[in-house]
Specification:
nine-stranded mixed sheet; 8 helices; alpha/beta; 23% strand; two-stranded antiparallel ribbon; 299 residues; Aminopeptidase
């Protein structure tokens, strides 16, 4: 009896620690940081659309999708497209992974983050650690999570290109997926750096089911999850600020996760060493937990 009591006590301690640390079983938190550090390193040269560093990032994403057992969405992982901006012509590529749903295989949740950034300008490299290597590394954490936790809805893990050039990758994706039933977009853009320890979620006010879900959501971490920047408060409205915008324009429900701009926004100082690691790990834990809740909804 004494042994059983000791084992029970140990189990309660472990469960308590798991709760305090933010569900570390969801993904490898140190690997998350390694992905972010690699994607925002000088070797990737700022991941500018059409440049070598951008291609290196795509290869990195695809390799880790494969390692996690994520299939391509289509014949290959890459979705090439072309566009012009002013007098410039660009060749770009989205990276699309696919995980088949167990209960609603014909309904798709798109989890997205843009993999491009601003590249090099002279001798300066715009590494884009927060913007948006943080979101891409989170996509890889989702891939890892799905390997052990198959989703109910089918999922497209979308690393969009050319967000910095006018949301081009997300816009093109929407033109190519009109024949599938996309029920939700979860978009991540700048989730790795907050001295206030605050993550914002935008979009729940536009859809009743998401509004109810977020009102009932229990944050598993010590970081703050705030509903705002959605046009209903006096803060800057982020409804059209990133790759969730083309989904919203098609009346597809969305949740956008991001932190407020910081002094390194679109500057060479947006580097890995300025990331706030505990906040970042908590942010990804929150977003995966929100996905788990949304995955229960029959949209």
């Amino acid at each position: 009896m004494k042994l059983k009591t000791v084992l029970l006590s140990l189990l309660l301690v472990v469960n308590s620690l798991t709760s305090i640390q933010g569900n570390p079983e969801l993904f490898d938190q140190e690997k998350l940081l390694e992905h972010l550090k690699t994607l925002s390193s000088d070797a990737f040269e700022g991941r500018l659309t059409g440049e070598k560093g951008n291609a290196l990032a795509r290869t990195y994403i695809i390799d880790h999708y494969k390692k996690s057992g994520v299939a391509p969405f289509g014949e290959t992982f890459e979705q090439p497209f072309e566009f012009t901006r002013g007098e410039m012509a660009y060749k770009a590529n989205n990276v699309l992974g696919f995980v088949k749903g167990t209960t609603y295989p014909g309904d798709f949740i798109v989890i997205s983050a843009h993999h491009d950034h601003l590249g090099k300008r002279g001798d300066a490299i715009y590494n884009g650690a927060d913007d948006n290597a943080s979101g891409v590394a989170a996509l890889l954490a989702f891939a890892e999570y799905f390997a052990a936790n198959p989703p109910k809805h089918s999922v497209i893990l979308a690393a969009f290109d050319a967000e910095e050039l006018g949301l081009q990758g997300a816009k093109y994706f929407m033109t190519q997926t009109e024949d599938i039933n996309v029920v939700l977009n979860l978009n991540m853009d700048m989730i790795g750096r907050s001295t206030k320890d605050e993550l914002y979620v935008v979009g729940s006010r536009y859809h009743k089911s998401l509004g109810r879900m977020m009102a009932q959501f229990e944050n598993p971490t010590s970081s703050k999850l705030l509903v705002g920047h959605d046009g209903a408060d006096k803060k800057e409205d982020w409804t059209y600020a990133s790759d969730h915008s083309p989904f919203h324009m098609k009346d597809i429900p969305f949740l956008y996760f991001g932190n407020e701009d910081h002094p390194a926004y679109h500057k060479p100082t947006d580097t890995f060493d300025a990331i706030t690691p505990e906040f970042y790990k908590n942010a990804v834990t929150i977003i995966i937990s929100v996905f788990k809740a949304a995955d229960q909804i029959d949209f």
